[in-house]
């Protein structure tokens, strides 16, 4: 057998494996992988983690042997795996209430998005990039359309209209386009807003006599991303302004991407002229994920959090939670927290019991509200409402604030940006850091586990 260039051969092999396999998010499992050696009928493969090894063995090994044999020119009957050595992290001084993007990405093992220039009104969340979007049968069309748009803004699918239920990844996909456009050209102006923000700013502009400033902001962009357009229904003046904004952008070949919970023709009290324009481009729907995709989502989440869980236990959670991605990720976090708080091992019986408790909690009609959780946390730590959302950062306030954030995430499955709004308008990265800090502290602090159990018992007994 002739001497192989392992790097080139491995890239060709990966390309063929990806083409032949139908496993969601192929890139997740082979990121930073390499072909280390070929010895007769044995191939040695290096993967990023023990978790990736477990998944690749169960989902890819047969096709890998087939493709390896073709490229090597002789039968490969056995594959051995090794795990990449983790790089040592340099020590850094971290602001306790405001970690840097690099620190967060390193701790959570998610792709780092370069900080690029954006329109000052644009809010693109760092994690919402194509690399972290899990692709499956339920969202493949929308994903392909979004990628096509990112490569050719203003000409491919304009507008792009993505619809689907809550928590299925519409905002993620929309913002991924914005990030990719900025990666290609940092000078592009991207504007992301929810329909509610557009509505409120329009009303404010009319009341303040600043309509010109409003028009300049919304019509002087290269990519306009509008979330939850269904909330414009029935609001005649706002629809009128949106119609003119849409026309101004579309006529100059600026890209428009819109999300909604339903197709344009089904939005009640939406003007026909808007519905027809929304339908004139590409309409793509996102459906709830199937079992295989739910497993891939949970496995990716575990990798981000630096946790290794047996794929059989991942499947157990994926089989029980089949609604949407947000609830799926929330269920994983809740189950993990439940086991940590109760100091239980990660095994089938304990996960099953934690899932049963989660289902029972969701069935309760008196599920805690944001206000109830805030009230009980404030009462427990003897602080008032103003203090928990204030800008003050002394220890006696920061810690209860982080507990509040943690409970909003684990009990209500709220997004990091929405939690930030409830805690004095804090940035989502601050919330991510606070939740992560409490989660880690629960592993080693028995007293904190007891505190969290006591707080939870209070708002579930009200």
From TrEMBL:
Stored SUPFAM superfamilies: P-loop containing nucleoside triphosphate hydrolases, TrpR-like
Chromosomal replication initiator DnaA C-terminal domain ranges (all copies): 369-438
SMART domains reported for this sequence: AAA (SM00382), Bac_DnaA_C (SM00760)
Keyword Ribosomal protein: no
Location(s) in or outside the cell: Cytoplasm
Record-linked InterPro entries: AAA+_ATPase (IPR003593), Chromosome_initiator_DnaA (IPR001957), Chromosome_initiator_DnaA-like (IPR020591), Chromosome_initiator_DnaA_CS (IPR018312), DnaA_C (IPR013159), DnaA_dom (IPR013317), DnaA_N_dom (IPR024633), DnaA_N_sf (IPR038454)
Any one Gene Ontology cellular component term annotated for this protein: cytoplasm
Keyword terms, alphabetized: ATP-binding, Cytoplasm, DNA replication, DNA-binding, Lipid-binding, Nucleotide-binding
Any single Pfam family the record assigns to this protein: Bac_DnaA
GO biological process, alphabetically ordered: DNA replication initiation; regulation of DNA replication
Domain of life: Bacteria
Molecular function via GO: ATP binding; DNA replication origin binding; lipid binding
Record-annotated AAA+ ATPase domain positions: 156-290
Residue segments, region Domain IV, binds dsDNA: 340-462
Region (Domain III, AAA+ region): 123-339
Region spans: Domain I, interacts with DnaA modulators: 1-84
Keyword Isomerase recorded: no
Positions contributing to ATP binding: 167, 169-171
Similarity annotation: Belongs to the DnaA family.
Quaternary structure annotation from Swiss-Prot or TrEMBL: Oligomerizes as a right-handed, spiral filament on DNA at oriC.
Entry function: Plays an essential role in the initiation and regulation of chromosomal replication. ATP-DnaA binds to the origin of replication (oriC) to initiate formation of the DNA replication initiation complex once per cell cycle. Binds the DnaA box (a 9 base pair repeat at the origin) and separates the double-stranded (ds)DNA. Forms a right-handed helical filament on oriC DNA; dsDNA binds to the exterior of the filament while single-stranded (ss)DNA is stabiized in the filament's interior.
PANTHER family: CHROMOSOMAL REPLICATION INITIATOR PROTEIN DNAA (PTHR30050:SF2)
Record remark: domains: Domain I is involved in oligomerization and binding regulators, domain II is flexibile and of varying length in different bacteria, domain III forms the AAA+ region, while domain IV binds dsDNA.
Protein name: Chromosomal replication initiator protein DnaA
């Amino acid at each position: 057998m002739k001497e192989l260039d392992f790097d080139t051969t491995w890239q060709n092999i990966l390309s063929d494996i990806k083409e032949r396999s139908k496993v969601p998010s192929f890139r997740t499992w082979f990121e930073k992988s390499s072909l280390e050696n070929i010895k007769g009928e044995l191939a040695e493969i290096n993967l990023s983690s023990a978790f990736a090894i477990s998944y690749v063995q169960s989902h890819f090994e047969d096709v890998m042997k087939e493709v390896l044999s073709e490229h090597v020119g002789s039968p490969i009957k056995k594959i051995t795996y090794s795990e990449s050595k983790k790089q040592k992290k340099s020590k850094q001084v971290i602001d306790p209430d405001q970690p840097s993007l690099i620190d967060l990405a390193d701790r959570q093992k998610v792709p780092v998005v370069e900080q690029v220039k954006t329109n000052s009104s644009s809010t693109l969340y760092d994690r919402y990039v194509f690399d972290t979007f899990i692709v499956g049968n339920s969202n493949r069309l929308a994903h392909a359309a979004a990628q096509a748009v990112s490569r050719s803004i203003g000409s491919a699918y304009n507008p792009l209209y993505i619809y689907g239920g809550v928590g299925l990844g519409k905002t993620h996909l929309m913002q991924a386009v914005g990030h990719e456009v900025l990666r290609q050209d940092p000078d592009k102006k991207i504007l992301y807003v929810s329909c509610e923000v557009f509505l409120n700013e329009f009303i404010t502009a009319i009341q303040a006599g600043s309509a010109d400033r409003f028009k300049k902001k919304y019509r002087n962009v290269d990519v306009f991303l509008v979330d939850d357009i269904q909330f414009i229904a029935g609001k005649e003046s706002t629809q009128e302004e949106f119609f003119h904004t849409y026309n101004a952008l579309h006529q100059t070949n600026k890209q428009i991407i819109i999300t909604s919970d339903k197709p344009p023709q089904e939005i009640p009290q939406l003007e026909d002229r808007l519905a027809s324009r929304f339908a004139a481009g590409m309409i793509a729907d996102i459906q709830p994920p199937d079992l295989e995709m739910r497993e891939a989502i949970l496995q990716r989440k575990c990798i981000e959090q630096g946790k290794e869980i047996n794929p059989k236990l991942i499947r157990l959670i994926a089989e029980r939670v089949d609604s949407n991605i947000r609830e799926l990720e929330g269920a994983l976090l809740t189950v993990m927290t439940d086991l940590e708080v109760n100091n239980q091992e990660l095994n089938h019986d304990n996960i099953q019991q934690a899932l049963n408790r989660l289902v029972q909690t969701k069935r309760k009609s008196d599920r805690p509200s944001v206000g109830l959780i805030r009230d009980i946390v404030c009462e427990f730590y003897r602080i008032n409402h103003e203090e928990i959302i204030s800008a003050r950062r002394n220890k006696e306030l920061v810690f209860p604030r982080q507990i509040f954030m943690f409970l909003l995430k684990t009990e209500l499955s709220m997004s990091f940006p929405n939690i930030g709004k409830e805690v004095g308008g804090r940035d989502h990265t601050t919330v991510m850091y606070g939740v992560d800090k409490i989660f880690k502290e629960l592993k080693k602090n028995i007293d904190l586990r007891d505190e969290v159990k006591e707080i939870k018992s209070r708002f579930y007994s009200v």
